[in-house]
TrEMBL record:
It comes from the Bacteria. Residues 521-535 have a biased composition (Low complexity). It comes from Meiothermus luteus. Keywords: Signal. Residues 516-535 are annotated as: Disordered. The lineage of its organism: Bacteria, Thermotogati, Deinococcota, Deinococci, Thermales. Residues 1-21 form the signal peptide. This is DUF11 domain-containing protein. Residues 797-872 form the DUF11 domain. Pfam families: DUF11 (PF01345).
Length: 906
């Protein structure tokens, strides 16, 4: 990253306060996808989803070095004899959101001090004890992980030697400078080395473990030092104890000391002591424990002695253990600095140790279970997707399900770690053909990518949704295992099991003559036989009853039909057994039929008898097959989702000519529909047929064909053999811009001539009606530098922590029919925080109001000012003024609703 970009991103990051929390790691992908629900112009509920938008978080560079200090007020001071080496302890931290390399160097003071130390060297302080230990090597740079990850901080010591012969009291200033590979630096870390001939006790401190500590873990603090001065040290007066050297350490707030500290010294008498008020000390016994840090309580080691009793080279060590509370949140820091109090021969001295900081590490964990019971122990039932779900322990089950249906299992996920975390969801165990995915708790919005961040101890509700294919049945239980995995620690997972005990067929049909469908008596299903003339048509009123549990559509056919005969099935809207007027278009599929006798569909099967058919009895059968159940159309298999009725037609010979049937249908604008007719010659000689062109009153195009591939405005020279028929296809092309509901009927005339001068004619009518309605949903994103108007990336493909992303979702009615109950939803993406939302409309007439919701149920004209993590935002247009979004709210053709959601990258 260029230095200027890093500096700008860092400045905005700090201004926005992002540095106070863990930033989103560099390289994280923020995925977002909107969805919408509506009712189309045919009254059918629909859902649709937008395209997915991906934003990749970029790296921000930032570092800190502590302790800070200036030349006049250094952050740490070390005193020693001329010729001795002193050690300055520092902590270097990466406060950026990606791995960084920090270059280290030192700077000597050339203006305000007395001398320059020699042999200045930077060492990696592996155990962070502020001292140079065997095996610790010089460094010039550090590789540090991103903030919040293990290895984001490191300790170093800077060794510097006071030149021999330096007079007592003179000092030197030394600075440690760190520079990030991305440009930022930290250079206010001055320290001071002072030469002395008096007694000088050093004080260093270590904390073990030196890195992160777990909730409930123990920190061992060790303070140690040595008299590196030019004479023996004396004691100071300590209230409650007498005269001696006091090593003291205030217990960090919240930590608990439960065992007696230990210590030793190279001279004097050692006593373990404590204070509760910070000034009066007394011996510490087991009966005084535990001690809880509150900012005042301290433990220590008193080295008793008289006069100058602690000689040159004498050393001391003091150690105690402190326990971290079990519920400590990630990022909780326990900073601790100890001190040693002594007299250098002329005056009392207090030498502070280096500071140690023990930070509670991120303890990632997750629990997922049945709805309302993320940690197992579930019981009771609830209803989802029309099924009763039984919860038990860490499982939930459906006793029996039907194929062809969508199953819902509700779940609750809980962040059982000590830090905000995001989680990925996965499912296994679904049989081949099952389609399983996850949705938000609104049961509509799909979950894209991880969910969260979710606060420690907080819950997130979601659905597992599985579509069972119509081809699947079985008595073997289906066990679906839902797994939640921490995005920060993939080893932290939890599972819960959803079981479907068995899947039975949800498809069944009863096909019968009019008035007997669904009565449970197959003996009366067959239509009575009929008589007809050659070239004529016979109508059989029939009805279809969906006796399954799933909505289904059925294919209509006539498996038993004499050669050359044809059949067409016409809807009988009022189920009176008579052909409706105008004649509807024939169909081969029933369309969607809901279960139950009350939802039966009636049809008239019109059998066309070829001219010249010999008199006699001709068996006929009609069949319905489920269009969903794959077995229904498999040869040799007779599933329950298929049914057949049988009858017969007694035929006599007659002559004649027919152009049948009349047709009607619906089409969108623009759109195309093709009708099929038959030229039937029932005479005793070949007929030659012509059909002239027709003219549309609305500029529609009508084309004719006998083979379905070659089209023209008119036809001529069509040879129809005696007793034979020829299909005629009529294609209607409707241009764009036609209003919904417009209908046009045209009459086509077929003129037939016979050898010897005979002639005949017949007509067929086609009626076409405009219908339509469709919702288009598109999504785009733009990322901005912080909260400014400066564009970071025009497609939102990149962003930094602290940047804003503006999502724009446009829902448009691109059809020609009204849509109702239109609701657009957009989830708050993981790794972001809600900033604002707004919406705008166009193409509506009259007074309309944009309404907002955060749960899809309660609506308000005021846009929400906040949105919890993992939630979705909903918008709709209230066109009837009743303050909610329902089936009375209409989106007309050409109208659009635009949702604008602004979020901030964490």
């Amino acid at each position: 990253m260029p230095k200027t970009l890093s500096a700008l991103a860092l400045a905005l990051w700090l201004v926005l306060g992002i540095a106070l929390a863990q930033p989103t790691p560099a390289g994280t992908s923020i995925a977002n996808q909107a969805s919408a629900s509506y009712v189309d112009s045919a009254g059918q509920p629909r859902t649709t989803t937008s395209n997915q938008v991906i934003t990749v978080v970029q790296q921000v560079y930032s570092l800190t070095i502590t302790p800070n200090g200036t030349q006049t007020s250094p952050g740490q001071t070390r005193t020693a004899l001329a010729g001795a080496t002193v050690y300055f302890a520092y902590t270097v931290s990466n406060t950026g959101n990606g791995t960084d390399s920090v270059a280290l160097s030192t700077l000597q003071d050339s203006t305000t001090d007395n001398f320059d130390p020699t042999g200045v060297t930077i060492y990696r302080d592996n155990n962070c004890n502020g001292a140079l230990d065997a095996g610790e090597t010089p460094v010039t740079s550090l590789s540090l992980a991103r903030q919040g990850a293990s290895g984001s901080s490191a300790c170093v010591v800077v060794a510097a030697t006071i030149p021999g012969g330096t007079p007592g009291g003179q000092y030197a200033n030394l600075n440690l400078v760190g520079t990030s590979s991305g440009g930022p630096s930290d250079s206010d870390n001055w320290a001071r080395a002072t030469a002395t001939t008096a007694a000088a006790l050093t004080a260093s401190k270590s904390a073990s473990p030196s890195g992160a500590v777990s909730p409930g873990g123990t920190i061992t603090y060790t303070i140690f030092g040595q008299n590196t001065g030019g004479s023996a040290a004396s004691g100071v007066s300590v209230s409650g104890l007498g005269t001696g050297i006091l090593v003291r350490d205030t217990i960090p707030n919240g930590l608990v000391v439960s065992t007696l500290p230990t210590g030793s010294a190279g001279a004097g008498t050692v006593q373990i002591v404590y204070t509760t008020d910070g000034s009066t000390w007394q011996p510490l016994a087991s009966s005084n424990l535990p001690l809880t840090g509150n900012g005042t309580v301290a433990v220590g080691m008193f080295i008793g002695g008289s006069g100058a009793f602690f000689p040159q080279g004498a050393s001391y060590t003091f150690s105690f253990q402190a326990t971290v509370p079990n519920g400590a949140a990630q990022g909780t820091s326990y900073t601790n600095t100890a001190a040693v109090q002594y007299n250098n021969g002329s005056q009392n001295q207090t030498q502070a140790t280096n500071s140690t900081t023990s930070t509670v590490g991120a303890a990632y964990n997750v629990a997922v279970g049945p709805f309302g019971f993320p940690a197992a122990g579930a019981s009771g039932t609830y209803t989802a997707g029309g099924y009763t779900i039984t919860r038990s322990g860490d499982t939930q089950s459906i006793a029996s399900a039907y194929n062809g249906q969508t199953l819902f299992f509700y779940h609750t996920l809980r962040n059982t770690g000590n830090t905000p975390d995001s989680f990925t969801l996965s499912v296994s165990g679904a049989p081949t053909g099952w389609s399983c995915g996850f949705r938000h708790a609104d049961h509509i919005t799909p979950i894209s990518g991880p969910v969260g961040p979710i606060a420690p101890g907080s819950d997130f509700n979601f659905d597992l949704v599985c579509a069972v294919p119509a081809t699947y049945t079985g008595s073997t239980a289906v066990n679906l295992t839902v797994t939640a995995t921490s995005t920060n620690d993939s080893s932290k997972t939890d599972t819960t099991q959803d079981t479907v005990a068995q899947v039975v067929s949800g498809y069944s049909v009863d096909f019968a003559r009019l008035g007997t469908g669904g009565d449970g008596n197959p003996a009366n299903d067959n239509p009575p036989a009929a008589s007809a003339n050659p070239g004529g048509a016979v109508s059989f009123p029939l009805e279809v009853v969906n006796t399954g549990v799933n909505p289904d559509s059925f294919n209509l056919s006539a498996p038993t039909l004499p050669s050359g005969w044809s059949v067409a099935f016409y809807p009988d809207a009022n189920c009176d057994g008579a052909m409706d007027s105008p004649t509807p278009s024939p169909i081969t599929n029933t369309g969607l039929v809901n279960p139950g006798v009350a939802n039966k569909r009636c049809y008239i099967a019109v059998v066309q008898i070829p001219t010249g058919t010999a008199p006699g009895n001709n068996p006929i059968s009609f069949r319905v097959d489920s269009a969903t159940d794959a077995d229904a159309n498999t040869p040799g298999i007779q599933p329950v989702s298929s049914d057949v009725v049988s009858t017969a037609i007694n035929v006599n010979l007659v002559t004649g000519f027919a152009f049948d049937p009349d047709r009607s249908g619906t089409v969108t604008s623009p759109g195309t529909i093709t009708y099929t007719h038959n030229l039937v010659n029932t005479g005793n000689a070949q007929a030659t047929v012509s059909i002239p062109a027709v003219t549309s009153a609305y500029g529609w195009t009508y084309q004719l064909s006998t083979d379905g591939s070659t089209w023209s405005a008119s036809l001529s020279g069509i040879a129809v053999p005696s007793g034979g028929s020829v299909p005629v296809y009529v294609r209607v092309q409707v241009p764009g811009g036609q209003p919904i509901g417009r209908s046009e009927s045209v009459t086509l005339t077929a003129n037939a001539t016979y050898p010897g001068g005979g002639a005949a004619s017949d007509t067929a009518t086609v009626t076409t009606t405009i219908v339509g309605g469709e919702l288009s949903l598109t999504k785009s994103a733009v990322s901005y530098v912080g909260s400014s108007s400066t564009v970071r990336h025009p497609s939102g493909a990149e962003a930094f922590p602290g940047d804003h992303i503006v999502y724009t979702v446009v829902a448009s009615n691109i059809g020609t029919g009204n849509l109702t109950n239109v609701r657009v939803s957009d989830p708050l993406p993981a790794y972001t925080s809600f900033v604002s939302v707004s919406a705008a409309v166009s193409g509506f007439t009259g007074a309309v109001t944009v309404l907002y919701s955060t749960n899809g149920t309660s609506w308000n004209a005021t846009a929400p000012s906040s949105l919890p993590a993992g939630s979705s935002l909903y918008v709709g247009v209230d066109t009837d003024g009743n303050g909610t979004i329902d089936s009375n709210d209409t989106m007309p053709p050409g109208a659009s609703l635009t949702l604008t959601l602004r979020v901030q990258v964490q």
